[in-house]
Amino acid sequence: MRIDYLRVGQIVRAHGVHGDVKIIPLTDDPARFRGLKTAYLETTAGAYAPVAVTSARFMPDAVLLHLEGYDTVEQVETLKNLYLCVNRENAVKLRKDTYFIVDLIGCDTFDTNGKAYGKVTDVLETGAHDVYEIERGKLLVPALKKLLREVDIENGRIVFDAQVLEEVGCFAD
Question: Which of 64, 65, 90, 166 sits at 20 to 30 Å (Cα–Cα) from 145?
Answer without folding.
Answer: 90
